[in-house]
Amino acid sequence: MRSLTRTLQDISYSKIALIKSYGILLLLGMASAGIVSTFLSMLPRPVPSEPDTFENIFFRFYELRTPGQDPEFLPTETGYFQGNEEEWMPRLLEEVNHESPPTGARFALGLWLMDDGKPSEAINLFHQENLDSPHALIRQSELEATLRARDVNHLYSLRENPAYDGELRGVHFFHMGVLTQDWGMIFRWFWLAQYENIFAGTLFMVLVAGAIWTALILSLFPRPLLRAYIFLVPLALALGWISTWPTIWSSIWMENRFNIEEGHNFFSALLYYLVSVGFREEICKLLLFTPLLFRVSKNGRDLEALLFGAMVGLGFAIEENINYFTNYQGTGVAVSRFVSANLLHLSLTGVTSLALTRAVRDPNRWLADAVTTLAMCIGIHGLYNTLLSQPVPGLGEISFFSGTLLAACSFLFFRETGSLSSIHGLRISRTALFCWGFCLLFNLELMSASVLLPFDNALFLTGNAALSATLTAYIFLHQINEPLSP
Asked: Which residue, 148, 76, 78, is CA-closest to 113?
């Protein structure tokens, strides 16, 4: 065991050996993903069935609402939503009012009414259609109409109907609470809506990414301090996780109370991300750091304040990543967020937590600095999100410049750690921890993407995400400024 540790230590402090190990790990990961993809391609796959009546109606309707769709991907003719409305609407109404409506007529009219701003009228049509011809697409449309109509009673009645067990979830009740501003309903269904659809594979990747960054933060602790404070690590991460909850609740309140929304241009988005997203997230993370003040507010504990604040920020990022990893599985999101969201949150929260600790300890000296630091971090956070979402007037899409803001986060964080922590005495270098961790996550995501996509597509998406993260990774490693032998 000692010889293995010694070998890893030698590799981690040698540039050439580290590059070689990095390349070998990447090649092993790509080879494994290629083998998995090849094996899966050899398995027989089910032949997709032809669209049924309800699918034909549904796709035809939304083709009507989104003209220009490639006809090759349209289903067969339905008789509805084709030609002028004056031609088919009277026939549709006649069919719906018939004693025995033909299959699909009530579903077609329900889609039309819901899109026309009359979801309450569509609910009964969907419900009756599903009684006669049960279909998941009808039930999903009925749930959507129920939410649009804000019909709480009908939603609870569907809860008692066994036919809706597969479609009705906690997120529907939570969204209904948001739409009606029923805070009892919001709080009752919030946790189920957040976590009912977590997949084991997704959670594993999220926790792996979090564990790598946790190890990097812990490496900044002197060994005696680490032994003294190790029991607070799970608490700090848990507090960060919990801080996402008031962030969401305050978002619901602010956006309803002040009618705040992102908008469709750079300046409206910047205002939204500054006064809503950046402000809420930084304040909530800082508030959840305050339970740790009892251990870090004494003189000489600035390093502890900085690093436990970073862990609170990391806990926030871990929880936030669950949603992204679930919704964008196989697109390289795990690799890109490993060096973006994780670094952003832990750096900003670490810096603001240190500023708060100093202000609590000596308000006359540090209060103004704490306010300035918090405002600066909110500004960096808001501008970072804006650059990712909207083109800059006169410059177009420059989301790649968001990496410069991650560099600012890294600089602020390591400006403090440089004077508070030593870079010497580690068994495994921080550079190796970051590079090997990044490689591990890349291989895991490539493997996951290869299960869903052809290998070349999986490699392109994951590799593109990895290349886009290279600049940020380089900046982070430069800030570490760790001496390595040639």
From this structure: 148
| Contact present, 126 and 143 (Cβ < 8 Å) | no
Domains of the chain as residue ranges with CATH: 2-39+198-480 (no CATH), 53-195 (1.25.40)
* C-alpha–C-alpha distance, residues 125 and 129, integer Å: 6
Return the amino acid letter for 5.
Answer: T
More confident residue, 365 or 400: 365
- Would you give the DSSP letter of residue 484? -
Q: Is 167 exposed, middle or buried (0-12, 13-18, 19+ CB in 10 A)?
A: middle
SS3 396: strand
- Tens-place pLDDT, residues 234-285: 999 999 999 999 999 999 999 888 888 887 888 888 899 998 999 999 999 9
Angle, CA of 319, 327 and 203, to the nearest 5°: 45
The CA distance from 277 to 433, in Å, is: 31
- Predicted TM-score (pTM) of the model is 0.90
Q: What is the pLDDT of residues 97-129, one digit of tens each?
A: 888 888 888 998 999 899 889 999 999 999 999
CA quadruple 4, 8, 10, 11: dihedral sign: positive
For residue 119 the two structure tokens come to 């979801």
- What is the predicted pLDDT for the residue at 331? 83
Q: How far apart are CA 385 and CA 240, in angstroms?
A: 20
**Are 435 and 221 in contact, with CB atoms under 8 Å apart?**
no
Please state the separation of Cα 136 from the chain's center in Å: 27
pLDDT value at 408 more than 60: yes
Reported as type and span, the H/E element at residue 127 is helix 119-132
CB neighbour list of residue 383: distance below 8 Å, 6 or more residues apart:
270, 273, 274, 405
Model confidence pLDDT, tens digit, residues 305-360: 999 999 999 999 999 999 988 888 878 889 989 988 999 999 999 999 999 999 99
| Cα four-point dihedral sign 124, 127, 132, 133 | positive
pLDDT at 70 over 50: no
CB contact at 8 A, 351 and 413: yes
Cα 146 from Cα 119, distance rounded (Å): 7
How many Å apart are CA 117 and CA 145, to the nearest integer? 10
What is residue 454's DSSP assignment?
A: -
Contact yes or no for 273/225 (Cβ under 8 A): no
Alpha-carbon distances of 422 from 192, 342, 429, rounded to whole Å: 44, 23, 12
- Under the banding of pLDDT at 50, 70 and 90, the label for residue 398 is low
Task: Give buried/exposed letters for 127-149 (b at 16+ CB in 10 A, else e).
Answer: bbbbeeeebebbbbbbbbbbbbb
Q: What is the DSSP letter of 50?
A: P
- Give CA separation, 78 vs 85, 88, 93, 165, in Å: 14, 11, 15, 29
